Structures are given as C-alpha cells and as structure tokens.
Amino acid sequence: MRLNVIERDPDHDSRATPVVFIHGLFGRARNLSFLQRQAAKTRRTLALDLRSHGASPHGKLDYMAMVGDVMETLGAYDALPAILVGHSMGGKVAMALALQHPERVAGLLVGDIAPARTGHGQSTLGEAMLRLNFPPHLDRKEALVLLGSVVPREDMRNLMLQNLRLDDPPGWEIGLQEIVDSMPNIENWPYVPEGHVYNGPTLFIRGERSPYIRPEHYPVMARLFPHYRLETIPGVGHWLHAENPQRFSELMLAFLKDIP
C-alpha cells in the first residue's frame, strides 16, 4: 500500500541519508512537523501517514503489513536506505522494519515504546469513538464538545479532532473501524524470527512519567539492538515529543549528526 507522504527538503543540496518520520496510534504525519522541520535543515525528510491514518488508504493494521507499506512507499520515493524516527506504534513499525531489513536502515530512533507487548490502553476509547453520533453539521468548537463525551483529556481531544471530517457530512476521516478491529495487533509486538538483529545505531528516548519503556524491557532491547542507547526526558509522559519538543529535537539532531 502506497502511503501519503509529506516531504521536506533542505535549502541546499544534501547527499546525507534521508530521515523518515512515523507517527503513533491516532496520529498523522503532520504531528511530527516540528521535528521534521528541524531535520530538514540539513537532510531530505519524509513524514508518513500509516494505513488507516491521515490521508492514507484504509486497511487492517498489523506490523508486517505496515512494514511492507513503508518499504513500498520509500522505494517509490527513492528514499532507501533511511534513518527512521518512530513514536509509539510508529516506533514498533520502525523497529520491525530495521529487524527485517537492516540493510535499508541507516539509523533508528524510537520514541517511548519497547520491543514488547506493552499495550496502548486505547481499545475502550476506540470503541467509544465508533459509537459517537454525528449531527448533520459540525464546527470545530462543537466537535471538541462532542469529543469531550468520550475523550476526557484535552490533549487527546485535540489529537482526535484532526481525525474528524467536519462537513459533507461530519464523521471520521480515518479508518476508525479498521483501527479498532486491529487493536490486538497494535498492542502486541510482532513475531520476529530468531536471530534477527539490528546492529546499526539505535536511540530510545523515553518519557520519565511514561510506563512504556521499563527496566524489564532492557534485556530484549539489548538482544535485538546491541548498540542501543537510552535517554530519558524528565517530567514528561508518553507524548514526549509534544510535551518537550525542544529536548526531543536536541537529542534527535545529536543522533543524526553522527550518521553520514
């Protein structure tokens, strides 16, 4: 499946390896626009809408299918090998791709997710959003009120708002049914054949207040990604790139600087 892509190029010619941004569950490419703009100062960059997200085609989600989508899309854009930057579900896609196709990945940066069945806790939320009844007409303010009935957190409401179509008629723009049906796959970690290892440079960045990367994950991280390094951003949770974009960007740019 060919995915929707937002591409940003540097102001000057660059032969540096391109950087690919992969968003998390219920996100889309433009969520990572700040980070993409920072990387695009020196490198070609591509941000992807994963299947059933953003403006990409809809389909059931599992990690091997999403890896195939990313490979097909980057191949069409002549953007391989690439450095992958993935958050949450997108981090799992990036890790699975690096393990399956290590020769195509020049570097791997994973935002706040481990190579394990960690869960996302969004099954109930997704089902509640499916049951929302949309009126014939909806503006942004009314949409936030409607979402408030099932999404208590303001930051999550703003995230979900971008997945709504507000006219002709109002409804979900994303493949919400496909996402909800796929939640067991999304919350899982894909089966990776024994012996698959990614030996390239790898950086995990975790939020201090997030439960998604824990000490019990370190052994499997070390086995699959022998050259990994772990950084923690103090005082933030799972949405670390949104809560402290400056620090995340600093860590990302330092990581990129060491990759040709």
From TrEMBL:
Q: Has keyword Hydrolase? A: yes
Q: Name one GO molecular function term.
A: carboxylic ester hydrolase activity
The segment(s) forming the AB hydrolase-1 domain are 18-245
The UniProt record lists the keyword Hydrolase:
yes
What keywords sit in the KW lines? Hydrolase
> Matching Gene3D superfamilies, A to Z?
alpha/beta hydrolase
Protein name, per record: Alpha/beta fold hydrolase
The record's section on SUPFAM superfamilies has: alpha/beta-Hydrolases (SSF53474)
